[in-house]
Amino acid sequence: MESEKVNQCPLHGSGARPEILVGCRLEEVVAAWHRSGDEESEDPLDVWLIDSQGGSMHIATGSEWCLIVESSSPHEGYDLGSWGHMEVTPVGDRMPFAAHLGEGVLAVREECEPKTGRIALEVTFASGWVRCGSWAGDLRLSE
Questions:
Q1: What is the pTM of this model?
Q2: How many of the other CB atoms lie within 10 Å of CB of 24?
Q3: Phi-psi map region of 10: left, alpha, beta (phi>0 left; psi -120 to 50 alpha)
Q4: What digits encode the pLDDT tens for the residues 20-30?
Q5: 8 Å CB contact between 101 and 4
Q6: How many helices (H) and strands (E) would you count in the chain?
Q7: Angle made by CA atoms 55, 97, 21, in degrees to the nearest 5
């Protein structure tokens, strides 16, 4: 069954409207990273953008290679047994969003595919932008 809206994933739905970020000030960014021994994944698996009012927007990839955007708070890290563990921490300066902490979101732009739904989200600040994309099922962040 095809989705009714272009930005809607057939499996995960359309999620939150990213335009609610416009006008919000980015206060904190938290990410979930897979860690196995001393190795950490290059890109985070999940990102949460936390605004000055305490609102939180979760960005992740779905099993259908869509980009999930939903209102939810960061969860705690957890153990994966012999596969390592998930570490959920503030990003510090480890990713593109860190350069925009304290700035307001000026605009957002989505890219969608008819069969997958949302595949990318571009968040624009006064000093630049950050692109969140689903690439082969992985979350990719770039400037």
A1: 0.86
A2: 17
A3: alpha
A4: 899 999 999 99
A5: no
A6: 0, 11
A7: 35
Q: Which residues contact 82 (CB under 8 A, 6 or more apart)?
A: none
Structure confidence at residue 7 as a pLDDT band (50, 70, 90): low
54: tokens are 């305490």
Residues in the chain: 143
**Range with lowest mean pLDDT among 11-15, 27-31, 101-105, 133-137:** 11-15
**Which residue type is seen at 15?**
G
18 residue type, one letter: P
- Rounded to 5 degrees, what are φ and ψ at 6? -60, -35
Q: How far apart are the first and last CA of the chain?
A: 35
Give the alpha-carbon dihedral of 100, 104, 105, 107, to 10 degrees: -120
Tokens of 89: 């921490």
